[in-house]
Each structure stands twice: as C-alpha cells, then as structure tokens.
Please model this.
Amino acid sequence: MHSYDVAGYHIRGFLEGLRALQLDVEQLLRDSGIDRATLDETEVRFPEPQVLMLWMGAERQYDKPTFGIDLALSIPFGRFELIDYLVAACPTVGAGVECLGHHARLCASGFLYRIEPHTHEGQRGQRIVTEHRHPIAALPSSLLEYTWTLMITRFRHVCGNAFAPQLWLREKPRASSKQLVDVLGRLPEIAAQDALFVPWTQWELPNQHHDPMLGKILLSHARDVEARLPASDFLGALQGAITFALHSGDPSIGRIGSRLGLSPRTLQRRLEVEGVTFQGILEQVRRELALRYLTSTQLSLAEISALLAYADISAFGRAFRRWIGSSPTSFRQQQREQPLHRAETRSESREARDARDQGATSTELLGSS
Model:
C-alpha cells in the first residue's frame, strides 16, 4: 500500500520537545526503529506508521492527558526549520495559512488542509479543515490537539495575541480551561468535525516581522525541496480515495472513480494496465486499516467495522479471519501482550546478567583469598 511519510526535520523538532518533557528519547527511537544517524540527514523522511509508533510510545511514557498540547508548547519556534520560517515570512495570517496548505507536504505527506469560506455566529471568515489518508477519527486525539496547538501558537507568535480563532474538536481536551485560553486564545468547542474558524478580521492580521525578500528566498527553496519529493502514483491516489470513501460508507467503484475524476469504465482500464483488480485493492486497504486501528487506537470493533464500511461486526470478523487467521479480538489481545512479554524478557535478561556478575564477583573474591 502507498506509504505516506513525515519529514526528518519535523521529527527532529518533535524530539526536542520530548526532551523538554524529560522523556527517554533514545529509548523511544530504538522502540520505533528510527536510526539516529539517518535522522540527522538533511532531507530524510520516515514512513508514517513508524512515526505513529514513536508518537504512541512517547504518549505512553509521558502518561498525562495533556500530552499533545504540552508537546506543542515545548517545541521552540524555528525548530521546524523551513516550514516555520516560510509561514513566518508571509505578510498576514491568511497568507500564512494558505502557504501552509500549499506546502503541507514538506512536513507530512499524509495531511491536507482544506480552506473554505464559512460564517460562524454572524461573522464571515475562513474555515480550515484537516484531511488525512486515514480517517481523522482513527488518529489519536492527542495528535490532533498537537497539530492545532502548533498552528495556533505559531501564528500568535508572529501576529500577536489578537489571533484567537475558534477551534472545533471532536473530543474535549483534558487540559484546564485556563491553559486552553492562555494557549489558544479562547476555549475550543465540541463539534462533529475538527476545524479552525478564522474571522476575516483575524485572517487579515498583519505580520509585523514580514520580510518580503526572505519570503521569496524561502519559497524558492520550498519549491526546490518539493520537486525532489517522490511523485504520488496512481495506485497511491486510488488507495487514498478508497480510504475516504470507506469513511463515508460508500466504497463503490462509481464513488471512487468520481473522486478521482474517472468514469468506472476508465478506472477499470487503468487497473487492468496495473495488473490489479478494484476488489483486490479495496481488500488491501481494508486489511491495512484494520491492523492499524486494532494496534494503534482504542476504537471499538463496531467503530472499526463502520470505518471500514462493513454491514456489521460479523462481516468484519469473517473478513479479518480470512486475512489473518484469527478474530479481531484475539489479534488485539496478542498485540497488547507483546510489549509486556518484551518487558518481562528484558527484566529476565537483567536478572540473569546480575546473577552472572554476582557469580563472577564471588569467584574473584574466592580467588583473591
């Protein structure tokens, strides 16, 4: 399946925040399989599943409900290198948001930002909605809190505290009301979809540090970096379209083709050229998403079944047994037991080593006597 990725510079900034939170960064890198030497390469990028593993490990280690917000506040401005300074060089909040939307792939290829006119409580403005190849509902709520907090605090950094947009979240953050107001400018509201509403008066807030010449240089550099990124392929686009369609409950070939701008007949011909079938790709996407949801989220089986557009849990269970050979419940339990088993193995190894060292010490003492 097409792999989305995250820029190394974002992970480097992310790790600086983890250190500020006093987490064991080296252990987290080892557990997620991220090589320290590779991480230091200028334009390296890492597969999104690997980065999600790093995130989940850090959240478990931090063990506080405010992880996403606290982490965003722990990363100084400028640590996200090109994207930080590119947005900061824009003349207004609106120009910065549009710049971020155009160049989001520099940071993480899986996320997209959609900007649309919107009216809220009689105020006209722009609404920013995040989209992702995986349904947003399946991502950790802490990751979404982190993303929005980063965006809002960085714009407040360059345009002042007058920037206090209305944030909508699907889940209520577990931070205190005072912290939320201090950080975001106002309390977020609970809604069916995560989004950020910026009234026109705030959209046009000026950046007092705007540097037109620096902006042109950074924009040229951003385009140069983007030109070296791998191009999205047809199968990758198809898999992304299937994921969104699953979330809406209609993964039919007609719906998928419409999203790609292709008729069902043209889509079938393209698939024949690739040597694959629509049903095969659909099964592949469902299988990968099911594994991701079962290992990386707390979603119930009913919620996962709905996200994969199955008629009921039984249909999902039959498909999962066909893919994996066990039930979804058994698979999830096995995945939860593995970290415990690894911890017990490490503990046993330490005990064996201590016993061996103690034995060696006793032998030395006997020899010396």
User: Anything to note?
Assistant: Residues 5-227 form a domain with the H-NOX domain fold (CATH 3.90.1520.10). The mean pLDDT is 85.
